[in-house]
Amino acid sequence: MFEKILIANRGEIACRVIRTAKRLGVSTVAVYSEADREALHVAMADESVLIGPAPSSESYLVVDRIIDACRQTGAQAVHPGYGFLSENPALFAGLESEGIVFIGPSKKAIEVMGDKIASKALAEASGVSTVPGFNHVIPDADEAIRCARKIGYPVMLKASAGGGGKGMRIAHSDEECREGFERASSEARSSFADDRIFIEKFISQPRHIEIQVLADQHGHVIHLNERECSIQRRHQKVVEEAPSPFVDDALRQAMGAQAIDLARAVNYVSAGTVEFIVDAERKFYFLEMNTRLQVEHPVTEKITGIDLVEWMLRIAAGEKLTLSQHDVGISGWSMETRIYAEDPLRGFMPSSGRVTRFRPPEASETVRIDTGLFEGAEVSLHYDPMVAKLISHGPDRDQAADTMRRALDQFEISR
Amino acid sequence: MTFEPERAAPAKICRIAQTADQTFEIALQEEASGWSLLIGSRAHRFKVLGNPYDSVVDFEFDGHSGSAQIRRSRNAYEVIYGGSRFTVAMFEPHVAQLASIMPKKIQPDRSHLVLSPMPGLLVSLSVNAGDTVKAGDEVAVVEAMKMENILRANRDGRVAVIHAKVGAALNVDQCIVELDQEPGE
Questions:
Q1: What angle do CA A146, A148, A152 make, to 5 degrees?
Q2: C-alpha span between A265 and A282 (Å, rounded)
């Protein structure tokens, strides 16, 4: 096991990784921007390094600063969390050249799965079911309209470098297709510095169901069941649950097997998630693979009793996965709600400012809170608006929902 | 536990304002363990578990337990429950009668203004002073927390003044573009 790791992230995920590292006796290094001097993840870590001014592009996204921080502190490995540099091959490459371990998969796996066009091609080649569409770059709006007409409306325009719901637009007509192409390209250019767009059939009333996979460096790959993430706002997940109320054992086995096949096709190592969309007839189609820990991983942890961050650290340190597929069960039901700094009275626009009251419900076996926020902290405009995750667990779905409802009623947050 | 009207405290009027005012007549009767309520013609049982002055109040209503956040706000109560916020005012019956004839405040018409809906950055402007726009035309794009928002004209009109420069940091409700006001506004 590593003696010291650096967490290249902030907010709730940085706090969550530090929590497990502490439990395992691993020293932790936090990195922070000027806006995060007083942040919780900085206070929780054993050491911290200032890496730049507030904007992410000048701090959390600067590979060199992360590497400098590792050198300064002697960190042996880096956990990238989610978002930021977690799926950036440049971070992997930079760390590799310094002999620092990247807690995640290989550079090739990151590159292939980070490119939706390439990952879809790989999925097809591996016998994984994919969404009908045109798997090449669309050069302009006119071509988008031509392809859309061939596929048949409605269609989905997607950024190849996209993820997390960004750079996506649905089109029901030529005009929507034209505007959608322009807006998706623009959003992709500013969010991912890559404006390539491709086009697929839009599956209506889709369920968004994903499979958690875990693989070690010795060729063992297992899946840890599914998560249902269909409740979304503007393509951002808001409520997630495990297991899925729509998935039976047969579907779980089929999706799990394809997820493992895909992971093996890139010699996947560490925790990852294969996302599928499932239609009303239980036909499923590969959407994308996220080569990192996902925001909603806690619901899987609650029903399996497995600490995913702990396994990411162990696997990165070369340990063998001691769990077989047989050992992975489903215990009860878990739900997660994401708490966003958005104003519900203004169409959920981002809302910033100082949090004068932050009192989550009491943590217990049935209620878990993952957050980087605290009373008196500042929510700035520089980072993602998600500030906390509330996770419930119960013996069945209704009780998990009741527990969640009660916990939400008890959660005090105000400016 | 039966509701005995002669034992009850005089009824109060409860008005809940959400999107439309809802008014209820409530009579209360204190019991050994909690309260009996008569809401309209229906009887209910209510008990506060713990401290009723805590910001989060745990209660039992007709045997079901729950929690709500209650805060005094001017001469009413702000109640957050089930993901919604309610403004609840309690009145003596004669005050309620008078309250119902108080003049309502009319919100000023701001349809000639294009305001920033969130704190963010003005990424682009699609109009200049003097341009004519139609309702729904794109006027500006504001960006915040990695989200881009297209702002549109609320109605037809002529652009009178541009109040912000591209690249400017905007506050919530900051005016970006002002159209000519209609006569009579």
A1: 125
A2: 24
CB of B34 within 8 Å of any CB in chain A? no
Torsion, Cα of B40, B43, B49, B54 (10° steps): 10
- Round to whole Å and give the CA distance between B62 and A402: 17
Q: Which residues are bridge partners to B28 per DSSP?
A: B37
Residue appearing with tokens 């932790």: A28
Closest CA to A188 of A155, A171, A154, A165: A165
In the block, residue with structure tokens 């091959």: A89
pLDDT at A408: 97
Query: Closest by alpha carbon to B82, among B64, B71, B68, B70?
Result: B68
Question: What is the b/e burial string over A134-154, where b = at least 16 CB atoms within 10 angstroms of the residue's CB?
Answer: bbeebeebebbbebbeebeeb
| Residue A136 CA, distance from chain mean position | 25
Residue B92, CA distances (Å) to A324, B36, B96, B100 in order: 68, 18, 6, 12
| Cβ burial A42-78 (10 Å sphere, 16+ → b, else e) | bebbebbbebbeebbeebbbbbebbbebbeebebbbb
Task: Determine phi and psi for A183, rounding to 5 degrees.
Answer: -65, -40
**3-class secondary structure for B44-72?**
EEEEEECCCCCCEEEEEECCEEEEEEEEE
Q: What is the mean pLDDT of each run of 10 residues along chain A (415 residues)?
A: 98 98 98 97 98 96 97 98 95 97 96 93 94 89 94 90 80 94 89 88 89 97 96 89 96 97 97 94 92 97 98 98 96 97 87 94 97 95 93 98 97 92
pTM exceeding 0.90: no
B23: enclosing H helix or E strand: strand B21-31
CB distance from B19 to chain A under 8 Å?
no
E strand intervals along A82-147: 101-102, 133-134
ipTM score above 0.85:
no
In this structure, is the dihedral angle defined by the CA atoms of residues A129, A132, A135 and A137, taken in order, positive or negative? negative
Closest CB to B120 among A186, A381, A410: A381
For B160, the token pair is: 């009178």
d(CA B164, CA B180): 17
The helix/strand/coil state of A19 is helix
A187 and chain B: CB distance < 8 Å anywhere? yes
CB contacts of A234 in chain B (<8 Å) are: 147
Measured CA to CA, the distance from residue B60 to residue B62 in angstroms comes to 7
CA distance linking residue A187 with residue A41, whole number of Å: 30
Q: Any residues with CB less than 8 A from the CB of B32 and at least 6 apart, and which?
A: none
Give the span between the Cα atoms of B136 and B127, in whole angstroms.
13
The verdict on a CB contact (< 8 Å) between A412 and B56 is yes
User: In this complex, how many residue pairs, one in chain A and one in chain B, have their CB atoms less than 8 Å apart?
Assistant: 58
Give every CB contact of residue B26 below 8 A, 6+ residues apart in sequence: B11, B12, B13, B14, B37, B38, B39
Task: Write out chain A residues lying below 8 Å of B145, CB-based.
Answer: 350, 381, 383-385
What is the CB neighbour count within 10 angstroms for residue B32? 5
